[in-house]
Amino acid sequence: MNNKRINRISEEVKKAISYIISNDLKDPRISPMTSVTHVEVTRDLRYAKVYISVLGKEKEKKDTIKGLESAKGFIRKEIGNKIDLRYVPEPVFQLDESIEHGIYMSKLIDKVNEKDKRGNTDE
């Protein structure tokens, strides 16, 4: 299957899942600070690896993934309602901590810059 088509379908699935998580799911385990960072659909359109970013503590992240896993059937059905595909991909949720890692790296850079500024003013 064409790689462009797979990427386009991945983006559509990402939009649909983002909408479903923010508007349709009522599970209290799912954090309101949940976002879909990336979706990779397999070439046969059977599975969609969904990368989820949750801003919060480790318990909130685990609870959100558990909530999404339990709502997997509902999410798949809603994807099928929103996107016209022969096969609706089954979502496989994975926690994406790249945003938190980026924030951590940014704080480290700020600390180094602050130390550097203090070091230059002493001269």
UniProtKB/TrEMBL annotation:
Swiss-Prot/TrEMBL keywords: Cytoplasm, Ribosome biogenesis
Sum up the protein's function in the record's words: One of several proteins that assist in the late maturation steps of the functional core of the 30S ribosomal subunit. Associates with free 30S ribosomal subunits (but not with 30S subunits that are part of 70S ribosomes or polysomes). Required for efficient processing of 16S rRNA. May interact with the 5'-terminal helix region of 16S rRNA.
Q: Which domain of life is it from?
A: Bacteria
Q: Which gene encodes it?
A: rbfA
Family classification: Belongs to the RbfA family.
InterPro entries, per database record:
KH_dom-like_a/b, RbfA, RbfA_dom_sf
A single GO CC term, please? cytosol
Instruction: Supply the Pfam families for this chain.
Output: RBFA
* Record GO biological process: maturation of SSU-rRNA
User: Where does this polypeptide localize?
Assistant: Cytoplasm
- Record text on subunit structure and interactions: Monomer. Binds 30S ribosomal subunits, but not 50S ribosomal subunits or 70S ribosomes.
Keyword Cytoplasm included in the entry's annotation: yes
Family matches, as NCBIfam families: rbfA
Q: What is this protein called?
A: Ribosome-binding factor A
Q: Which GO terms describe its molecular function?
A: ribosomal small subunit binding
- What broad taxonomic lineage does this protein's source fall under? Bacteria, Bacillati, Bacillota, Tissierellia, Tissierellales
**Would the keyword Cell division be found if you checked this record's keyword annotation?**
no
What main location does UniProt list?
cytoplasm
